[in-house]
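User: Sorry, what's this?
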Amino acid sequence: MFDSPLSASAYEVLGVLPAVDEEALRKAYRLRLRQTHPDTGGDAAVFIQVQRAWELVGTPDARAAYDRGHGFADAPAPEWSGWRAPAAQNDTRPRARSHGQPGGWRRERYLTLIREWAGRGVTLADPYDPALVRSAPHGIRRLLADALAEEATARIVGDLGMGYTVWHDVAAGGRDADPEAKLDHIVLGPSGLYGVLSEDFGGPVRVRRGDLIGDGVDGSPVGTLLARMRVMARAAGVRFSGAIVVLPDEDVLSVIDEIGKVRGIPVAIVARSALSTVLRRGITGSRSMGGNEVFDVRTRLQQTARFV
């Protein structure tokens, strides 16, 4: 929750400054509990955030560890960073076929912009230093948050096994299209063909009228995903079974929210921890695929997919 480049710090959730004393911190926590408790008209998602914030800073030991890890102490540990690219794992299990670089375009864009923002000619010892990231403009932090979300989804899909194929960062437009106009992931397996959007809005989201709303939500994420899926479906001559939006567990009230068909396509809003379950079983109303069809769709996509 608080490891996201976009999320508020534990102190911000509790409404205090990082240097506040223990007694004031405890009072702030109790106040925020009363303000956000669902029984008194508060927001359940924010109530959970307040509880989690207290777990992180509510004791001297926990608070010291949090300050060291999140860049709020005077001398944060330089070796720590929760925002680095994951190291390769020595896992010999058969993995899903994977094409493209998950989060690659956004991570490269982040590195370019964070260096420009910090100052031309300045050599950054660590472009992922938490204190640096949290002080950067929202747009830069958003790039890193989205890259991390895409990388997390890729790890989950990779563990599904060799019966699945996934394409990452697929261009959803012509050769001169904006790199932002992409599909984060296309996942093909026995349960069907899915367009997948990996997001991190930095806070709770909800569904209203077939799309997502929340403080950090811009535009129409579901509508945009479906539009890009249509472009890819026409180009490759394939039919998608459904659409999935993957979000951090802390930002959704339900781990699997099947919101029905939107523009004729079954859509699910899924907590990251439930993604593998949904991809294995499929979405209600989606169409599964037999072996020959999976092979045909894989061939069509492999011939058509271009990467940003």
